[in-house]
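Here comes an entry:

___
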Amino acid sequence: MTYWRDLVLQGRFEEAEPVMLADTEERDGYGGETVTRAGFYEDWGNSLRSGAEAEKRYWQSHSYWADYASWSTSGGEGTARMMDVKRLLKKIEGLKC
């Protein structure tokens, strides 16, 4: 079986998605699976560059980054994690220009 990260490198996100979701189903307790999913959808949106499908993928990424940020245990940690959330919002806004 082809590893999902290899599919991503080939730009085959649609094929990689179900494998990635299955691979990241189990929680590690530190949010690693959430960060992996956020990065996956952000990369997918980046590969599309524009359009409704790119926006959809960016919103998926944003959701995972927002979840990750919400689990912060301190102000500094939350501020740092919000950088990812804000980056995605800028990408989404950039699609509307």
